[in-house]
Amino acid sequence: MEILGLWLAGFFTLSLFSFLYKDNPFYGLAEHVFAGLSAGYEVGLVYHSVILQQLVDPISQHWVNATAGDHPGFHIMKIGFLLFAGALGVLMFTRFFPKASWISRYPLAFVMGNTAGIYLMSELHGRLIPQIAGTFVNLLNPLNLIIFFGVLTTLIYFYFSKEHTGLLGGTARVGIWFIMIAFGAHFGYTVMGRISLLIGQVQFILIDWLKLIKPG
Amino acid sequence: MRLARPVGLLLLLILLLIPELLAANGASSVETGWFRTYRINAVIVAAVFSAAVLYYTQRARRGDKLFVRKIAGLDEVEDAVGRATEMGRPVLFIPGIDEIDKIDTLAGLSILGRVALITARYETPLYVPVRYPMVLAAAQEVVQQSYITEGRADSYNQDMVCYVAGEQFAYTATVNGYMMRERPAANIMMGAFYAESLLLAETGNAAGSIQIAGTAQPEQLPFFIAACDYTLMGEELFAASAYLSHEPLMLGGLKGQDFMKVLIIAAILVGTFMVTTHLGGDWMRSLFEVR
Questions:
Q1: Cα(B94)–Cα(A105) distance, rounded to whole angstroms?
Q2: Measured between CA atoms, how close is B40 to chain A, in angstroms?
Q3: pTM of the model
């Protein structure tokens, strides 16, 4: 079984690499197997990690605690919240019935509205305010000048209420230079990471699968 | 109004149960208090931001002209769809690969609505592969609404938006295969992208599609810039829907953000001056301290 798994992994690795030449039946096979497997895996994953772990098990636990007389109000309220969330999930299934599919907009609206509200505060608290404070730097240090001008000019680049001409345009152009330098650094860093992934996969083919090279 | 009574009862129930909740968590209301006062700075910023958004939304609703500068790339969306129509090939729209609870995905869906309006108008085939069921439902709603708005409800087909795969690279492999087989004339990628960004953008480039991408993930932007014809960077993605639609609500949000940027720039200038000159720099920092 282990050998079969090794050969399948090798075959599908080469099938996916064959896309570098052009689209072909081997790539098509690997693509469909990959997509099908991942869809099946997701079903199992969601059932165990969401439906069981985050809904059924907590409801059972709270019910046991409530019936044991340990702060029953608290546990009943928790069960209510969990059932509310579960009911929202069930409402998504109304999409299968054209006449009732409009009901599925309620859970969607709930998630979208919730997302916007939660993110607003978490972004303010976690990112925006600390970053403002982090930019209060002593300009007598030359390195701090880079931080100061980098933040200011980049902010100005993302200002949409005025045309980027004159002084504002010049400052925004400096901002785009800062952005591009940062992107260049990201690009190099990520390419290095991808090359190490490629090396790992080539090692798998040559060492683990084909055994053409003995591990050092 | 029919919902007011049950919602009120629910809120009352929660209020009655709060002491129980605090007691069960092993903390009394005296110890914790009702508010975390050390987070008042975040509340003030949120209040100022919300007030600015409401103010500008009201102005936009009154019909005041609110200027938004040109965002390179967005004007090309209509041209790209026009090109697809002339070539008789589809438009591929990828709303990122993250869940619906990601702001980037919401921005992507908002732009999808505008793109679907144009494809509906020109009767251009549209294909939207998605990675998560919730995004599938939302994207189907958005596209259907656009086709109805454009008076082409009969042209809408639910399969325009389809679930592909839940695994990141299974999704990417399938979309890449679609790009090479169907050769869409335009690929529009707007949303949250991760390690698959270059794989998608390079394949689209090899397929000869015109590509417009936008994401707020700074690690992925360099790849889009390298492989796409136009790229929306960071906040340009969030500004895009307001720019395209000119709807008062969205314009209000965009203008409110710009107002906040002015305040932030002012705060940085003042704070940096105070720190550099040692005139109350620590006090200024303490105002922005978060715990």
A1: 21
A2: 10
A3: 0.85
Whole-number Cα distances in Å, B69 to A60, A78, B1, B48, B139: 56, 49, 41, 24, 28
Residues A162, A77 within the same domain: no
Query: For chain A, how many structural domains are there in total?
Result: 3
CB atoms within 10 A of CB A105: 16
**Is residue A32 domain-shared with residue A109, that is, in the same domain?**
no
Report which DSSP code applies to B219. Answer: T
DSSP assignment, residue B98? S
Q: Least CB-CB distance to B264: which of A22, A32, A155?
A: A155
> Residues A149, A215: one domain?
yes
d(CA B113, CA B49): 26
The answer to whether the Cβ–Cβ distance between A28 and B177 falls below 8 Å is yes
Q: Are A2 and A87 part of one and the same domain?
A: yes
The domain in which residue A158 lies consists of 138-216
Q: What is the pLDDT of residues B2-34, one digit of tens each?
A: 555 665 665 665 566 555 555 555 544 445 677
Q: Which residues pair with B94 in a beta bridge?
A: B189
Chain A nearest-CA residue for B109: A112
Domain ranges within chain B, ordered by starting residue: 40-68+250-291, 75-245
Q: Which residue of A has its CA nearest to B105?
A: A112
CATH architecture of B75-245: 3-Layer(aba) Sandwich (3.40)
User: Is residue A79 located within the same domain as residue A143?
Assistant: no
Find chain A residues with C-beta within 8 A of B264's C-beta: 128, 132, 155
ipTM over 0.90: no
Q: Per-residue pLDDT tens for B172-209?
A: 999 999 999 999 999 999 999 999 999 999 999 999 99
Q: On the CB side of B70, how many CA atoms lie within 13 Å of its CA?
A: 7
Residues A47 and A69 in one domain: yes
Return the structure tokens found at A44: 């199992």
